[in-house]
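Interim report, section 4.2 (structural modelling).
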Amino acid sequence: DTEVTQTPKHLVMGMTNKKSLKCEQHMGHRAMYWYKQKAKKPPELMFVYSYEKLSINESVPSRFSPECPNSSLLNLHLHALQPEDSALYLCASSQPGLAGGHEQYFGPGTRLTVT
Amino acid sequence: GQNIDQPTEMTATEGAIVQINCTYQTSGFNGLFWYQQHAGEAPTFLSYNVLDGLEEKGRFSSFLSRSKGYSYLLLKELQMKDSASYLCAVISSSGGSYIPTFGRGTSLIVHP
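Predicted structure of the assembly:
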């Protein structure tokens, strides 16, 4: 199984809503990532979890709150978002230590629209 | 910080060969990945280079020169389905963590 799944596929939320994005993998990967991608732009790294611990937070606003309940699951909790947060949110997983050539496997993404 | 540069767009003919270049400036270089991304889909892994030289994988090859901060992706026998965005991603290490930074991507259009 080389699949990373993400739910929901699409999400529309108001600026006062609270919602969560979910990501799951069963490849035994111990590193998981959240990226934000705007149209015609590259993915921008938001968070990295390594062995279920947050190892990188790329100065992401606190309205985005990641959570890694176990080695297979990664959540992104959203609260009080702004319209400019509308984007494709991609989850990825890999073996820790990308330098070993351990490529990232990406999920299909959640298309988020903030109204 | 990282600085990664790729051409924005390239066009090529079906059956031809195309080379997509990527130049980078980074500290703590720990490898370079190439990904393919079709519109509206997730990126998929194509190749990885950490040492200088050429890595070949079927129709796709990737080259790295660390001293020049330069890589290219070579696509042979182009097919229409190769029309996609090609992302160069540089891995840098910092404080024991490995941080991937993506270039803006090169949109490749293959025409008959």
